Amino acid sequence: MNNTSQVMEGPLSVSRISNLRLVVGAVGLVLGIIAALGLLAGGHATFNTSSTLVWGLPVSAYVFFTLTSTGLSFVASLAVVFGMKDFYPIAKRCVWGAIITLIAGFISLGLEMGNPLLMLWVIPTNWAISSPMWWMGLFYTTCLALLIFKFLLINKGDWSSSQSKGIGVALFVAEIFALASLGLVFGMMGMRPFWYDPMMPVYFLIAAFLSGLAFIMFFINLDYGVDQGNMSQGARKAMREQLPTIFAIVLGLVIVFTVAKMITGLWSNVTETKSVAQHVFWSLRFQFALWVGMVLPFFLMLSAKRSDAKVQVIAGGLVIVAQFIDRYEYVVGGQLVPLFQGAWQDGLIAYTPSMTEIGVVILATSVGILLYAFGDKKLNLSGTPHH
């Protein structure tokens, strides 16, 4: 069994990357805890949300992390469900990544509620089965349990038993239902025109796959010291041949969805939708996310350099940033028009995340980084059925 943390070749030492990840995770954890301590003193009042804009940065991060978790699970499913053998060398790392990004999402959402016990106890037991949010919680909790079970099986070498295959199929189905319910949380809100869209579950499906591919393209290349010569032959083949092509196709679809949504919003005869679309479209964040975070990586994946590790790190990193911006603009943007006031209310609600909200997201991200570092050092994430 090869442990990537022991490889010392390439332009960047793998051990240096691993140690840097630990330092970043530890520093981020301390900073996140310090900033999030405001919750203990002031509770939800330390957030810049209000009764008119109730979901801010932590909820945006929750959506980002859960979509990424689902996307990583989808990438793993290419091997463990659909039998695409070239993806076996990255499947175990995908499953572990799916676990930790889902945990990071739960941390962000739990702290946003002020009392994580609400997420763990009150919401599941209130039996509000008519709410898609209740189903979202049920399905994502099921996904976490199945992900852990699947990882335990493949960690001990069980990739293809009937039990392991059954868990893989069940996980794939649960992820689709979880994603659909998350899309319905927003897409069914007719009172929020910017969100209201029956195609939202479909868009989340594609965006989740893109986020998972971007995470793999970014982190796996870093794990091997940004040198694919350190990879096994199977992993190198997946990263150089299949992944760039799939990544380009999915990224192209997300670009089309993004542009189509903004064009539809800008030409909408619904005043609330049009005003929010104009606000989002002309923001520097959106323009950066579209042109630098998506269009540029798309052309990089069409170039002759698409198999180069450095190019893949740049493309994957830019797409990750763009997807986080998109989640933020979507979650916050849908609330900028005051509810029940609508067209006759001049202007949009102003919102800037507080330090406590930023701290919550840093805390959740840092926990994820440290968990990933632990897995990379201790759990042989490069393991395959053949080793």
- Cα separation of the termini: 6 Å
Order of helices and strands: HHHHHHHHHHHHH
Sheet with the most strands, sense and barrel status? none
Q: Bin the strand percentage.
A: under 5%
Can you count the beta strands? 0
Q: Features of this protein?
A:
387 residues, mainly alpha, 13 helices, 0% strand
Task: Give a structural overview.
- The longest helix is centred in the middle third of the chain and has 34 residues, at 233-266.
- The protein has helices at 14-36, 38-42, 57-80, 88-112, 117-125, 132-155, 162-187, 200-223, 233-266, 271-281, 284-302, 309-333, 355-378.
- Helix content is 71%, strand content 0%.
- It is built from 13 helices and no strands.
- With 387 residues, it is mostly helical.
What's this model, at a glance?
The protein has 387 residues and is mostly helical. It has 13 helices and no strands. It has helices at 14-36, 38-42, 57-80, 88-112, 117-125, 132-155, 162-187, 200-223, 233-266, 271-281, 284-302, 309-333, 355-378.
What is the secondary structure topology, with strand pairs?
Layout: H1 14-36, H2 38-42, H3 57-80, H4 88-112, H5 117-125, H6 132-155, H7 162-187, H8 200-223, H9 233-266, H10 271-281, H11 284-302, H12 309-333, H13 355-378
